[in-house]
Design goal:
The protein contains 17 helices and 18 strands. It is of the alpha/beta class. An 8-stranded mixed β-sheet has the order 11-10-9-12-13-17-14-18, sandwiched between helices.
C-alpha cells in the first residue's frame, strides 16, 4: 500500500511538469539507474524529478533540475538527462550551471548547505559520473570536475558516510582537498551567505581544522564552530565524523592545504603574498647545511613554508621561530605545520609560530634568517618606538627619523641584526634595492656586515597578490615588482656607532654568484610548472660554484630531462610535482667567473656588486 501511495505521488509530480521530458525520465532513466546500480525509483522523498528549483536573484524560479537523489534529506547526486544524439559535454555544462545555482541556502533542499558532491549525465542509456572540486584561483570559485567510475547507490552513500556500517575514512592526498577541505570551505561560505571565498572564510576554515587537531571531539566548544548556525554546525560535525583526520596527517596533506590556500590568496581580496613552493625549496637549497641544531628564523613567516622546509631538512622543530603581524597567516602557518608534522593536542600550542611584529628584537644568534619579507616602500604597522630600540630609524644619517623608512629597509636591518657571525641570510627583495640611488645607504649597510654569496633575479609573474580587502571585486593580479633572491653570510658584528661605514659598495673584492632567470615564452599552468626546472638548473650551477668559484661552460638545453634525475639531489623534498618546461636562460651558465675580475652583470644590478 505504501508503495502505491509513493507511486501515485511520483505520478503527480510527473504530471505537474512537461509530460514528454518527465515521461522520458520516469520511464527510461530512473529504471536504468535502479536496475543497474540500485538507485531508488518509486520514492518521491529520495527522487526529485524537476522539483529542485533554480532561483533568480529576485527570488523567482528560473527552472528546475532534471533529477536530484536524496538520502536522509541531503542531496547526494544531481543528474542531467539528455536523449540520444546529444552529447555528454553539453549535459555536463548544464549540470554545472545547476550545481553553481543549487539552492544551498534553503534548508528544505540542502539541510547542510552543501550541494551534491557528484554529478551524472545520461545520453540515451549511456551514463557518466563526475566529482567536483573547487578552483581556488577565482574568488567566486569555479567548479572543476573529473570523471569517475559509475557508482552504485550503496557506494554513493558510503562516500557520504550514510551507510549504517560506515567507518571514518582515512584521506589520501587528493581526498584531503576534494572530499574534506572543499566541503569545509563550502560549509563556511554558505553559512556566511557569501558567494566569494573571503579572507575571513579562509581564516575560519584553517582555525576549524587547527581546533579539531587541538581539542579533538571537544572542538564544538570553540570558535569558529560556535559562531556557525545550527545547520552549519551539523554540517561540520558530519564532515569530521566522515573522516579520520588525525590518521590522515602528513606532508602531502599539508601541501594540499597550502596549495589550496595559495591559490585562494591569488584569487583576490587578501592583500597577501605567498611564496611558491619551488622558490622555497630553491632558497633552502641555496643556504644548505641544515642540521638538527641549526636555528632558523622567519620574522614574516606567512603560511610557514620556509619553516616546514627547514624542519624537513632535519632542523629540530624547537629550533625554528616564525612570526607574522597578521592573524590570518599565523593561523594558516600553525595549521600547515600541525598537518605537516602530525601534531595534535597540547603540541598545537607548542608550535613555534606567533602573532607579533617580527621587527621587534628576536636576538642576534640565529644560524639562518630566511623568508619573503614585506617589500613595500612605506612602513605602516606602527610600533616604531619599540622597533627603534633595536633597529635604526635614521640609517641614512640625514638627521630625520622615518623619512626613508621602507618596509624592506627594516626587514634588511632585522635580517642582518638577527643573524650570528657566520650565519646565512636568504631573502626575497625588490630588485630596486640593488640599483635605486636612494637605497645606497642600505647597500653600504649590507656590504659592511656581510659577504654577498648570490643574487638570483627572478622573472616577473612569480608572485601573485590579492587586491586590498576594501576592493574585493578587484580580483587577483600579478605583483608588478620584479624580485630577486639575495643570499649572504654575516661576517662582522654590528657597530651601532658606525652602521654604514665609508666603503664604496659598488665594488667588492670577491666573486659573487649572479643569475638572471628569464621568463619563458609561455607561462601557462602554475608558476612552478615553468619556474621549477629553471631553478633546478641554477642550483646545479650553484653547487659547482661553491666548490670552485667558477661555472661549467656548457649550455643547458634539456632541463626537462634533468628534472627527474636531479630533483632529489638538488631540491629538498618540499616542492610541488615537476612539470615539463623548456630551457632556462641563466647568464651565469654562459660565463666563467674568475675571482677579482670585472664581469658585466644584469644591467639592473650594475651599481651594487661587480666582481
Amino acid at each position: 500500500m505504501v508503495g502505491l501511495i509513493l507511486t501515485d505521488t511520483l505520478k503527480e509530480e510527473i504530471m505537474s511538469t512537461p509530460q514528454s521530458e518527465n515521461s522520458y525520465i520516469a520511464n527510461e532513466i530512473l529504471p536504468l539507474l535502479a536496475s543497474g546500480f540500485g538507485y531508488p525509483i518509486h520514492d518521491s522523498v529520495r527522487v526529485k524529478i524537476n522539483d529542485v528549483p533554480i532561483f533568480r536573484p529576485s527570488g523567482g524560479r528560473a527552472g528546475t533540475m532534471d533529477i536530484v537523489y536524496y538520502h536522509n534529506g541531503e542531496p547526494v547526486l544531481l543528474v542531467e538527462a539528455k536523449r540520444k544524439h546529444k552529447s555528454h559535454d553539453a549535459a555536463l555544462q548544464e549540470a554545472l550551471k545547476y550545481l553553481l545555482n543549487f539552492p544551498v541556502k534553503r534548508e528544505e533542499f540542502a539541510p547542510s548547505g552543501i550541494p551534491p558532491k557528484f554529478l551524472a549525465t545520461t545520453v540515451g542509456k549511456e551514463i557518466k559520473f563526475y566529482k567536483w572540486s573547487y578552483d581556488y584561483s577565482h574568488q567566486i570559485p569555479d567548479f572543476l570536475t573529473e570523471e569517475v567510475e559509475i557508482l552504485s547507490f550503496n557506494r554513493l552513500l558510503e562516500y557520504y558516510g550514510l551507510n549504517e556500517k560506515y567507518q571514518a575514512r582515512i584521506l589520501d592526498v587528493r581526498g584531503f582537498k576534494t572530499d574534506f577541505f572543499d566541503e569545509l570551505v563550502a560549509i563556511f561560505k554558505t553559512d556566511a551567505k557569501e558567494e566569494r571565498i573571503t579572507a575571513d572564510i579562509i581564516k575560519k576554515v584553517s582555525l576549524q581544522i587547527l581546533n579539531f587537531l587541538a581539542y579533538g571531539d571537544k572542538f564544538a566548544g570553540q570558535l569558529p564552530y560556535t559562531g556557525l548556525s545550527i545547520q552549519g554546525q551539523k554540517a561540520v560535525r558530519d564532515l569530521f565524523d566522515r573522516f579520520n583526520l588525525t590518521s590522515s596527517l602528513g606532508p602531502e596533506a599539508a601541501r594540499e592545504f597550502r596549495r589550496a590556500i595559495l591559490r585562494s590568496f591569488q584569487g583576490g581580496g587578501f592583500n597577501q603574498y605567498l611564496t611558491e613552493q619551488c622558490v622555497i625549496a630553491f632558497m633552502v637549497g641555496l643556504v644548505g647545511g641544515f642540521r638538527p641544531e641549526t636555528t632558523v628564523l622567519d620574522f614574516e613567516c606567512g603560511s610557514g613554508g620556509f619553516l616546514a622546509a627547514a624542519v624537513e631538512l632535519g632542523v629540530g622543530l624547537e629550533n625554528i621561530r616564525g612570526i607574522d603581524i597578521e592573524e590570518l597567516p599565523c593561523i594558516v602557518a600553525k595549521t600547515y605545520l600541525a598537518l605537516y608534522f602530525k601534531k595534535t593536542g597540547e603540541w598545537i600550542d607548542a608550535l613555534p609560530v606567533k602573532k607579533d611584529n617580527g621587527l621587534l628584537d628576536q636576538g642576534s644568534n640565529w644560524d639562518v634568517v630566511i623568508g619573503n619579507p614585506a617589500g613595500g616602500n612605506k612602513y605602516e604597522h606602527g610600533g616604531l618606538v619599540k622597533i627603534g630600540s633595536h633597529l635604526d630609524r635614521d640609517l641614512d644619517r640625514n638627521g630625520r627619523l622615518d623619512d626613508n623608512l621602507s618596509e624592506y629597509n627594516l626587514s634588511i636591518q632585522q635580517a642582518v641584526m638577527s643573524t650570528k657571525i657566520g650565519g646565512k641570510i636568504c631573502l626575497i627583495l625588490p630588485e630596486g634595492f640593488f640599483s635605486n640611488s636612494q637605497d645606497e645607504f642600505l647597500r653600504k649597510f649590507v656590504a659592511k656586515h656581510c659577504k654577498v654569496l648570490a643574487i638570483v633575479s627572478l622573472p616577473r609573474g612569480v608572485f601573485k597578490k590579492g587586491t586590498s580587502t576594501r576592493r574585493l571585486r578587484g580580483g587577483a593580479q600579478t605583483a608588478s615588482m620584479k624580485m630577486s633572491i639575495f643570499c649572504a653570510e654575516k661576517v662582522k658584528e654590528i657597530d651601532k656607532e658606525d652602521l654604514i661605514g665609508t666603503d664604496d659598495s659598488s665594488t667588492v673584492s670577491y666573486p659573487v654568484f649572479l643569475v638572471s632567470v628569464n621568463e619563458p615564452t609561455s607561462t601557462s599552468g602554475s608558476v612552478c610548472d615553468w619556474l621549477e626546472p629553471r631553478l633546478v638548473a641554477v642550483l646545479e650551477q650553484w653547487e659547482v660554484w661553491r666548490s670552485s668559484e667558477h661555472l661549467e661552460a656548457k649550455p643547458i638545453t634539456k632541463i626537462a630531462a634533468l628534472v627527474s634525475e636531479k630533483r632529489k639531489k638538488h631540491l629538498p623534498a618540499v616542492p610541488l610535482p615537476f612539470a615539463q618546461s623548456p630551457d632556462a636562460d641563466t647568464k651565469s651558465a654562459r660565463k666563467r667567473a674568475q675571482p677579482k675580475t670585472q664581469t658585466k652583470v644584469n644591467k639592473d644590478l650594475d651599481d651594487i656588486f661587480s666582481q
